[in-house]
Amino acid sequence: MDESGDVRNVEVAVVGAGQAGLSAGYFLRRAGFEPGSGFVVLDHSPGPGGAWQYRWPSLTYGKAHRVHDLPGLPLGDADPGLPSSEVVSAYFARYEDAFGLRVRRPVDVRAVREGLDGRLRVETDAGVWSPRALISATGTWDRPFLPYYPGQETFQGRQLHTAGYRGAAEFAGRHVVVVGGGTSAVQLLMELAEVARTTWVTRRPPVFRDAAFDEDWGRSVVARVEERVRRGLPPQSVVGATGLAATEAIRDARARGVLRPEPMFERITPHGVAWPDGRTLDADVIVWATGFRAALDHLAPLRLREPGGGVRIEGTRVVKDPRVHLIGYGPSASTIGANRAGRSAVREIRALLSGGADAAGIAPAREAATF
Ligand SMILES: Cc1cc2nc3c(=O)[nH]c(=O)nc-3n(C[C@H](O)[C@H](O)[C@H](O)COP(=O)(O)OP(=O)(O)OC[C@H]3O[C@@H](n4cnc5c(N)ncnc54)[C@H](O)[C@@H]3O)c2cc1C
C-alpha cells in the first residue's frame, strides 16, 4: 500500500516516457485504452524528452544519427544547430499533449512484483498501481556502465562517464584519455581534440564502416541483436553489432590523426594510465565512454533474468511472464525500433487481456476513430 492506502487499478502500466513509452501510449489510445483507468504512463524524469533531455548540449540535432518520428505526429523541420535535447524535448511535449497521454512525472517506479488476482503491483514514490499488464520502456540512460580497472580509486585527476559530459570547454588545455569504441567516444574525441590533448583507448580495434547504412544492413543488425535476447543473453551494444559509420567528419578526423586508437591500458595510476608492456601516460581526465546497460532494476522482484544474464524475450514479450513487455530493449533500442515495439507490445497485450480472442491485433480504421 502507498501512504494514502490507495492501490489504483489500471489495465496497463507503462514505465518510461521516452520514444518507446510514448509510442506505447499512442498505440494504447488507438486500441481504445483510456488514460487513467485504461493505462498510465509513469516517468521519473522532470520533463518530457526521455533520455534526450539529458544529452550533452554540444550533441546538436544535426549531429544525432537520426531521430525517427513518433507514430502519428512528425517532428517537422528543426534547426540542426540546436541541441538535440531541446528539439526532442519540445517535440515529445507537443506529442504528449496532442494525444492526451497524461504522463505522470516525476514518478519513480521502484519495484514491480506479483500482485493480487493475477495482477502486477507497481510500487512507486507516488503510490501503488495495480495493472494487468506492464510495458517497461525505461531505456538505458539511468544505468551508465563503468568497468573497473585496478588503481581506479587512486587516480588524482577527474573521471567521468559520457552521461556526465556537458561539452569540451571545461577540458581546455588538459590531457584527456577517452575509453571506449562506440559512437559517443568518437563524437567526444572530435570535440575534445579542438581544445585538449586526447588519447583514445579501446578494448578491441574499432571497425569503421565505409558502406552506406542501408535497410538490409539495418535488418541484419537487428536480427543479430534479436538472436542474442532470444537466447536470454544481455543485448550487445549497437556499435558492437554495427561498426562505426565513417561519416565525412569522421574520415576527416582520422586523416588528421584525431582518431588513432591505442590498446586498452591495464591499470590506472595516480597520474594517468599504464599498459602491460610497462608504458605509462600522464593524464588529467579519464572519460569513460563505455556505454549503458538496460535499466531493469525495478523488475528484479519478478525474477525475469535468465542464467545468461539477460531477459529472454519473443518480440517484446518476456518469455517468463507474458504480462510483461520490454520495449526499447535489445533489438528495439533505437528510435525506429522503439516505435515498432510499442505497436507490437500493445497488440499482444490487447489480445492477452481479451483472453486471446483478439490476437489479430489492431485494426487501423477502428483505431483512427478513437481520436
Ligand atoms: C548519446 C546517445 C545518442 C543517441 N542517438 C541516437 C540517434 O541519433 N538515433 C537513434 O535512433 N537512437 C539514438 N540513441 C539511442 C536512443 O537512446 C534510443 O534510440 C531512444 O531514444 C531510447 O528511447 P527509450 O524510450 O527506449 O529510452 P529513454 O529515452 O531512455 O526513456 C526512458 C525513460 O524511462 C524513464 N525511467 C527509467 N527508469 C525509470 C523508473 N524506474 N521509473 C520511472 N521512469 C523511469 C526515464 O526517466 C526516461 O524518461 C542514442 C543514445 C545515446 C546514449
From TrEMBL:
Keyword Oxidoreductase: yes
Pfam family, one: Pyr_redox_3
Organism superkingdom: Bacteria
Species: Streptomyces polygonati
Keyword Oxidoreductase found: yes
Entry-linked InterPro entries: Auxin_biosynth/cation_transpt (IPR050982), FAD/NAD-bd_sf (IPR036188)
Protein name per Swiss-Prot or TrEMBL: NAD(P)-binding domain-containing protein
Alphabetic keyword roster: Oxidoreductase
